Amino acid sequence: MARDWSDIFIVDGQPPADGRQPEAEQPPGTRRIGRFARLRESLRKTRQALQSEIQATLFEDLSDETWERLEEALIYADVGTSTTAKVVAQLEQEATEDKLTGGQELSDRLVELLTEIAKTGDDRIDLRAEPTVILVAGVNGTGKTTTLGKLAWHLSKELHRSVVLAAGDTFRAAAVEQLEIWAQRAGVGFVKGGLGADSASVAFDAIDQARRQGADVVLIDTAGRLHTQDNLMAELTKVRRVIAKQIPEAPHETLLTVDATTGQNGLRQAQMFAEAIDVTGIVLTKLDGTAKGGIALAIASELGIPVKLIGVGEQLEDLRPFDAGEFARALVS
Amino acid sequence: MFESLGEKLQATLADVRGRGTLTEDDINAAMREIRLALLEADVNFKVVRSFTSSVKEKALGADIVGALNPGQQVIKIVSDELTELMGGAAGDLAFSPRPPTIVLMAGLQGSGKTTATGKLARYLKGQGSSVAVAACDVYRPAAVEQLVKVAGQVGVAVYEQGTDENPVKIAKWAAERARSEGKDVLIVDTAGRLHVDTELMDELAQIKQAIKPHDILLVVDAMTGQDAVNVAEQFAAVVDFDGVVMTKLDGDARGGAALSVKAVTGKPILFASTGEKLDQFERFYPDRMAQRILGMGDVMTLIEKAQSGYDETQAAELERKLRKSEFDLDDFLDQMRQIRRLGPLKSLLGMIPGIGAELRNVNIDERDFDRLQSIILSMTPQERRHPELIKGSRRLRIAKGSGTNVQAVKQLIKQFEQSRKVMRQVAQGKMPDLGALMRQGGR
Question: Domains of chain B, with CATH numbers?
C-alpha cells in the first residue's frame, strides 16, 4: 500500500469527528484518474522495462553474467556505479553463502535491499511548528515552482492549512508570475518582492506576513541554480540564514528538487546543496516519464538524504508522498 | 572528487612503459576504467558497450611509438574514437533560400527550451538576421510571459496570442506573420512534453505538419542520465528532429547524454548553452565535448573565447605599450575588463586541462576584481599613469574613495608592478614562470 498524505505529514490534533478524512476538493481542470492510477501507470512502465532484464537473469543459473546483467539493469536505472556495486556485491555474497536459493528469493531480497537503502533518515515532514517554514531549492528546470504550487494546494485543500507562498525566484523571467498563478489556483497567500528584490528579503517578508496573519505554513521558492555557481550558492545560504534569524528552528524543512531523468551529476547536486543549506529531503520530480530516478537511491545511499515527495505529472494531484518499497519494486520487479 | 580518466589510465598502464606493446591484459584493465568513466559520465550503457569493444580492437596490438607513453596512447585512441562517434566537425542550421527560415524547438519539461529560444534568437540576430520568436507553450503557467521577457531582453519580435489559442494555430499564424513581416528567421518555442505523452507528442507532429520547419531542434539537458536514449529515440520517431541543443553545460556534469543521443539517433549536436546569461550560447564542437566527457579540459574553447572577446586594435596598442614599457594602471584596468568579459574566471579556468582538477575547489571571488577596479577608479588619471606617485596621503584618499583600506591599495600597486615586470619579459620574448604566477594568484 502506497503511503498517503497523512503518513508523511506530522500534524497536531485529531481528524474530523466521523474519523474520515475530509473529501478533497477537485483540482480545477484535471483529468480525474483514480487516486494511485497515475503513479501505478508510470511505475508500470519502469517495471516493464526492467522485468525482462532481471527475470531473465535471476531465474537462470547464477553465473558471472547474471551479476553483470543485474549491474547493467541498475546502471540503466541511473543508480550509478558505486551504489550498484554495493548492492550487487551484497546480493552475490548472500547468494554464494547459500542463504538464498532460487530466483524468487533472490528477487525478493534484492527489492528488500533496495528498499533498505532508499529508506534513510526521517522521511516525514513535521508541520507542528507555527508557522512551519519550508524552503525549496534546486537546479534550473527541476520543477521547484511546480512542486511548490502543488504542495501549497495539498496543504491548503487536503490538510486545511493556511499557506503563504513566497516568490523567492526573483531571477528567471516570469517565475514570479508562474508562482502567482499557482497561488491563485490553490487559494493561498502570496508574497512577492519589488523589482530587483533579493530572495532573502522576499523570504523575510513572507515569514513576517505569515506570523502576523497566524498562517500555518510558509513555502519559499528560490531561483534555480547550478551547484557549481559559488556566488549563487552563497546567496542561498544567506536566504537560509535570514530565515533562521527570524525563527531559530527554521527552515523546518529544506527540500531539494531532483529531476528523475538526472544522471550521476545528481549526486554532486545533492552534496553541494546539502553543504550550502542542509537539505532535509528530496523531491524526486518527473517520474512519469521512462526515467527510473535511480539517482535518488545513490543520494540516499551515499549522503543519507531521504526522498520525501515524488512528482508524477503536471496535474495538482500528481505530487505524492514517496514510498521506498514501491520505489524499490518499481526499480527491479 | 572526480579523478580524470586520463589520470586513471596513466596509473593503470604505468608499468607498461618500456615493455613496448600493450598486452590483452593491459587493454582489459584500461577498458574497465574507460567503462566506469563513461558510465559515471552518464553515457548509456549500451553505447558504452559498443564503444569499448571498438576501442579495444584498435588498441590491441597497437605499438607504443613516438613520444606517447602507453597511457597516453590509449587516451589518444579513446579520444579519437569518441570524437569520431560525436561526429567530427561542427554542424550548422539549415537556412531556407526563401526566408523565413523556421526553427522549431522541442524537448522535455525543464530542459531549457525557452531560454535556448531566446539565446538562439540573440545568436542569429548577432549574425545579422532579423528574428522573431513564437510563443506556443500555452500550458505552463507564465511561459508566454517568460518568452516575452526574454525576447525583450535580446531585442527580437515576439508573436504570441496568450494561452487560449491552440498551439498548432498559433504556430501557423506566427509563420504567416513572419513571412509577411519579412523576417529572416522564426523560432517557435513549444511546451515541454514527455516523450511518452502521446497526446502532446501528436500535437508536436501537428505543429511540424502545419509550419514545415527547416530545422527542428531537440533541447537536451546535459545532466540527463541513461534515459536520454529513450527521449531522443521517441522525439526522433515522432518529429525526426535535425539537431540538438545541449543546455546547462556550465555545470560540472560530464554530459555523456550528448554521446548517447548522437550514437542512437545520428543527429548532430549544434549548439551548447553554457550559462544563464543570454549571451552564453555557442556552436557545439564535438571534439571538445569528447574531451569533456573524458575529463580532459577544453583548451580550444578557451582559445576561441579569448579571440572573440579581444579587440585586435587594442591588442596592437597594448603590445606597443608593453615594448615601450608604457603599460600603466589604465591598461591594467582594461586588461581586467577584457578578461572578465570572457565570463566568470572559474569557468575559464575549468577549460584549461590540468588546472581544472587542481583549482576546482579554489574559490575565486569575483568581488575581488570589483574591489581592484574600484581602487583604480578612485585614482586620478595622473596617478594611474604614474603609480609611483601614490604615497601616504594619496594612498589614504584612494583607500577611502574605493571603500577599501590602505593595505589593499598597497597590495594592488605591488601586484601591478609584478605583472608589469612579467609583461615586459613576455614582450622581450622571455617566458615567465606561469606556474609560480598561478600559485601566487590562487593563494
Answer: 5-86 (1.20.120.140), 101-296 (3.40.50.300), 305-442 (1.10.260.30)
